[in-house]
Amino acid sequence: MLDILKSLPLEGSAWALAILFGIHEFEEWNILDWYKRHYVGLPPSTKFSTRLHIVVLSAAALGLISLAAALRSTPAFGVVIAALSIFIAVNSIQHVIWSFQTRSYSPGLATGLLLLSATMLANAAFVAQGGIDPWLYL
Length: 138
Description:
The chain is built from 6 helices and no strands. It has helices at 2-7, 10-27, 31-38, 47-70, 75-102, 109-128. The model has no long low-confidence stretch (mean pLDDT 91).
């Protein structure tokens, strides 16, 4: 397994995370209807504001990976990747929790599980290749 982790291209893995996150976010395109069916007392939202949020988050992930790529030979690469990865992991786990709470499919669950797996694999590769200091995860 260590050989596989050491053979994964770090920058390509980082870009894959951003692209998969964007796909995950777009699975949530109609999540506002789901929210309204399962939760009460939500802050006022519109489909436009929800979708704008999805586009902005996807663009931010691409921007962070662009920043990380520019900082590839510095310790800041690891900080940016670890921060984005932690956000992705929490977001993915949130969909699992929602599905259990509501006993229904939470929009984003399928891609969230795929994204969580990809994030764990990519981060294991980053650590195995010395691209991220494991202390960043504590």
